[in-house]
Amino acid sequence: MTLKVEPIKPAIGAVVHLDRSQITDAAIAKQCMELVDKHGVIVFPKLGLTDEEQIAFTEKLGARVNFTTSAPGGDKGGLYTISLDPKLNSEPEYVLGTFFYHMDGLAMEGIPPPKASVLACRRTAPKGGQTEFASTYAAYEALSAEDKAEFENLRVVHSVVAGVREVADAVDIEPRKRARKAERPLVWTHKCGRKSLLIGYTADSVVGMSKAEGRALLIRLLEWAGQPAFSYRHYWSVGDLVVWDNCGALHRVIPYATDSGRMMNRTSVAGVEMLA
Description:
This protein is an alpha+beta fold. It contains eight helices and 16 strands. The chain has a single domain, classed as Clavaminate synthase-like (Double-stranded beta-helix, 4-Layer Sandwich). 42% of the residues are buried.
């Protein structure tokens, strides 16, 4: 069975038309992951999956991982509820930190970051709340040969503190989370042979560079990756489902009000490649 696919941009994104009855089909799931690898981000408009169906679909895409069990909203049978509603989230700084481009799990040492993220829209915000994605495959591929050679062996320290630096003071972060750091390559070669940049607001410093020099480089690369040719903004409707390559596409949310009612449910496909 062949899925109907409509590319959004040459460098990123595709709309995929899927019937709910197909979500437990292993062949369909395989096609979907191939489309994630090809397009970086795939959108299933108004698919309307229940929580149980989202979990089942995620498990067809690959082994499911819940790496946010200690976060508010992160222990609901594998679903992580993303909301600024204080009744659902007592630690809003981590959701506020998603206003800035990032990849999930880069600051967690010793385990591979998620391969893919699966996000379902339960309620939209009256203003804001759209999600932007930026391909770090395309961003890398468009670099000059000189830049590629310069960046090839650089390593970057990612931390939880850096990820929320714009919205919270380090002293406000729980000590065990404050200590979370991991060193990653700036340029990562995937098993398939393609290369992507591992960047985002969790990136705190470049090994061997001064703080100013390293952070200036990281900001320039974020600006480069976020240019229109490499990025896509998704305007959510209730029931939409989006799946993206977590280590090949940055994501961030356009700011929305605490009382907006916006609520999303995320599941994650486990990573299978260590970021050596």
